Amino acid sequence: MVSTKKTAIIGATDNPSRYAYLAANMLKQYQHPIVPLGINKGEVAGTKILDLREKPQVSDLDTITLYIGPQRQPEWYDYIIGLKPKRIIFNPGTENPELENLAKQNGIETWEACTLVLLRSNQY
Fold this sequence. Notes:
Blueprint: E1 7-10, H1 19-29, E2 34-38, E3 43-44, E4 47-48, E5 50-51, E6 63-66, H2 77-82, E7 87-90, H3 97-105, E8 109-112, H4 115-120
Parallel strand pairs: 1-2, 1-6, 2-5, 6-7, 7-8
Antiparallel strand pairs: 3-4
Protein name: CoA-binding protein
Pfam family, one: CoA_binding_2
Domain CoA-binding: 5-119
């Protein structure tokens, strides 16, 4: 059996032209449970998008995959670190040395990578 990795998608959207949308669907396709977190209501890959502003608690999280740019990340630092994921994936355009350092100080692995490529190449 393939191990599944519960993944929070920060910046989740129901807009099919966005990479976060593609990632949600591909994660589901590869049978990883998803927790879509965004600021707009909607649904992606058959899962309701939770309101990021409410900072919902999520347990047993393996991965956070980021789809919000570094300029929007600071207000979410405490929340992201507080979710205690095993790793954070900084997708292209979301790289942020400040958040990466914070994560590492808290024992969280950081990857600068593309979730879609990781899934397709069996590196997820």
